[in-house]
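Worked example 3 (structure in, sequence out).
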């Protein structure tokens, strides 16, 4: 699904809401691969791990995107704590590294922060990304973005989620749903505005291991396939 500010997926703690590290099992690891819009020279990948000690949770991830000879890497370290059984806060520190062919590379440090309030069936998340407004060597500034979202389980096996994101003064709406059709199988669908795009996918999980696939449809470009694997255990 597109929404991820309050969804129980530890991978969303990287770049969306670091407070999400407080939920889920004690240990986790995962990887994903994306070929955006089927463009032959564009490749994206992500690798992350998480761990919990008592009320303290941490995560580390590396994500990369390559466009021909240009490469951009994002190295992230997240830390979250459960203040009360229903409230958690988190912070991400991430280094953005650019490798530019026939030119100088660049590296900046960004800071994200988030809050998560949760009950058995409802979760509300608020997060801010790049709050320190880091500036690249060429003078370009990465402006902060903000997101608020919720996840609601009206009944067992059904999850509804929605986010409102503000980036560069523009509001973006993201929504999605997840239906558990079998104990090991979940079907997902979502929508995102500006530009209007749709996504759908399926998730398989057996015990501690899971496999996810999703497809994102863009009205003007080719579709995007997203593959991911993960494992979680206590």
């Amino acid at each position: 699904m597109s929404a991820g500010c309050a969804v129980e997926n530890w991978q969303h703690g990287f770049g969306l809401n670091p407070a999400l590290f407080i939920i889920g099992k004690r240990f986790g690891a995962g990887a994903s691969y994306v070929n955006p819009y089927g463009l032959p020279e564009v490749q994206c990948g992500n690798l992350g791990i998480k761990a919990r000690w008592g009320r303290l949770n941490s995560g580390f991830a590396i994500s990369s995107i390559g466009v021909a000879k240009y490469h951009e890497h994002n190295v992230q370290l997240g830390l979250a704590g459960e203040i009360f059984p229903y409230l958690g806060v988190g912070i991400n520190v991430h280094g953005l590294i650019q490798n530019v062919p026939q030119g100088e590379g660049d590296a900046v440090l960004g800071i994200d922060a988030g809050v998560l309030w949760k009950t058995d069936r409802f979760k509300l998340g608020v997060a801010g990304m790049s709050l320190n407004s880091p500036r690249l060597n060429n003078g370009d500034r990465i402006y902060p973005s903000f997101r608020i979202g919720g996840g609601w389980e009206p009944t067992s096996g059904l999850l509804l989620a929605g986010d409102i994101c503000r980036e560069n003064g523009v509001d973006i709406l993201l929504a999605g749903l997840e239906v558990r059709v079998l104990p090991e199988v979940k079907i997902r669908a979502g929508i995102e505005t500006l530009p209007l795009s749709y996504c759908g996918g399926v998730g398989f999980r057996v015990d501690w291991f899971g496999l996810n696939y999703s497809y994102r449809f863009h009205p003007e470009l080719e579709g995007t396939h997203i593959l991911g694997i993960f494992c979680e255990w206590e």
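Notes: The mean pLDDT is 91. The chain is about 0% helix and 65% strand.
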